[in-house]
């Protein structure tokens, strides 16, 4: 399973100082997360059919090195905390510059939302098993239900 997303930094990703803007890091992390979930079978179409989707409670960015325009970047994702049923989870994204240097770490805490009831929910068992296929970090921690 590929847990790497690759993208190119465009003009629209820059701020007035010609640095990649803070929200562009979050955008790349979100796209990496969605791409990896999609590769596991947790697709947008499946979420629409089940009327549920991921929701974030917290997003944290740690900036390490600057990224400039036209750089090709890589974003890896790993599950570093989760309940056994996958109902609550934390994912770490590491953003790498074109030269291979770590540029940022984006961490998110999330859950699953029933978009009709507007309440937190759990995935159906077959999707719980797919979600469990996310690569786990070396410091992975199972959190109590």
Give a verbal description of the structure:
The chain is of the alpha+beta class and 145 residues long. It is built from three helices and seven strands. It has helices at residues 22-39, 44-50, 125-131, and strands spanning 4-8, 52-63, 72-82, 88-96, 102-114, 119-121, 136-142. Strands 1, 2, 3, 4, 5, 6 and 7 form a seven-stranded mixed sheet that branches. It starts with a strand and ends with a strand.
Residue runs with pLDDT of under 50 for 5 or more positions = none
Q: Number of helical segments?
A: 3
Helix content: 10-25%
Radius of gyration: 16 Å
List keywords for this structure.
145 residues, alpha+beta, 7-stranded mixed beta sheet, 7 strands, globular
Please give the structural blueprint.
Blueprint (H helix, E strand, L loop, with lengths): L3 E5 L13 H18 L4 H7 L1 E12 L8 E11 L5 E9 L5 E13 L4 E3 L3 H7 L4 E7 L3
Parallel strand pairs: 3-7
Antiparallel strand pairs: 1-3, 2-5, 3-4, 4-5, 5-6
């Amino acid at each position: 399973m590929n847990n790497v997303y690759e993208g190119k930094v465009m003009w629209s990703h820059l701020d007035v100082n010609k640095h990649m803007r803070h929200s562009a890091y979050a955008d790349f992390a979100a796209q990496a997360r969605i791409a990896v979930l999609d590769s596991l079978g947790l697709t947008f179409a499946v979420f629409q059919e089940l009327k549920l989707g991921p929701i974030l409670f917290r997003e944290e960015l740690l900036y390490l090195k600057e990224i400039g325009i036209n750089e090709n970047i890589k974003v890896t994702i790993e599950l570093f905390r989760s309940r056994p049923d996958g109902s609550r989870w934390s994912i770490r994204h590491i953003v790498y510059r074109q030269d291979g240097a770590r540029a940022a770490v984006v961490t998110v805490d999330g859950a699953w939302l029933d978009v009709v009831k507007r309440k937190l929910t759990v995935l159906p068992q077959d999707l719980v098993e797919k979600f469990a296929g996310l690569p786990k970090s070396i410091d992975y921690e199972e959190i109590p239900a």
